[in-house]
Amino acid sequence: REGAIASIGWRAETVAAWLSLLARVGGPADADFVDWLAVDRVEGREFDIGLHRRWLDPTRPFAEVVLKPAHGALVTSATLTGGGSAEEGWQIAEARSGAPHLTRPAARFAALSPFDYATQAEVLIVTDVKRGDVGALANAYARLIVASRGGTLGLFTAIRRLRGVHGRIADRLAREGLPLLAQHVDPIDTGTLVDIFRDDPGASLLGTDALRDGVDVPGESLRLVVMEGVPWPKPTVLHAARRLAGGGAVYDDRLIRARLAQAFGRLIRRADDSGAFVMLSAAMPSRLLSAFPPGVPVTRVTLDEAVTRVAARLSSRAALRHEAGEPARGPLS
């Protein structure tokens, strides 16, 4: 009976929210919310129409519902400051955590990373992969994956490009004895894909946002992260409103730095990890490089140079697997 009562209460709240939303159609705007009408399409076919509402600042309800009733709250993340300067970074962290909506200022604490990023990792920005050329993008992914002998997390900003690359390189890598897994392609849930990837140091995994922000694969199984391009925000109505309220281009840069920091964070998960982070885009602005940890070497290179450097950095690991009985091959040309 309690379950039924709770279910009815939840439905009543949902209906009340819908009525409130419909009542606003054609009425005055509410500065706290962003409302818009959207048509959802899949492969060119319209299948849903929706009236949407989101908080302009989502940390406001978080502060009201979670932070204020609590006796205390700890918000922690290695990328919370977003790669800004010291004071700017703290301002970003407080804005993201909802601290400005509290009556008392937040206490601050920072700890140095235990990792030696300068020796454990490097960032390579490839400058000669043509934007929009899926064939060239697929070739770059294939060559880098072979150079590292698997252990690659490939990150995409669009599902269509992910599928296009996967379709072009899966057989090519299979002939090299390198399994390829892909979110939005393999009929397996993301968690299981990650488990398979974690258990096979020769496998590689392609995916989108969920893999960029929430994957923990320490050790040998992840030694190369490849991003197809700079993760620019999508030009949606919601983003446009938050961008206007958040300072324009400054807001965009904060978002991109956070995404880059999250992506790089997949690479080094423990003290004995090492690897390379490759960005397949010449359009990587220098102002965004602060997203990476201090001391990490960042180099702009051609694809040939990137393949050579990845193979050299990871050659010792490939040699160890070869001694264990796995055949070693050189990078593809």
Fold and architecture overview:
The strands form two sheets. Strands 5-6-4-7-8-3-9 form a seven-stranded parallel sheet, sandwiched between helices. The chain has a two-stranded antiparallel ribbon with strand order 1-2. The chain starts with a helix and ends in a 10-residue tail after the last helix. The chain has helices at residues 2-23, 59-67, 86-97, 117-120, 134-148, 159-175, 190-199, 209-214, 237-246, 249-265, 303-323; strands spanning 33-42, 45-55, 121-126, 152-155, 180-182, 204-207, 224-227, 275-279, 298-301. The chain is α/β, with parallel strands linked by helices and 333 residues long. Helix 7 links the parallel strand 5 and strand 6 (204-207). It has a domain at 117-323: 3-Layer(aba) Sandwich (Rossmann fold), CATH 3.40.50.
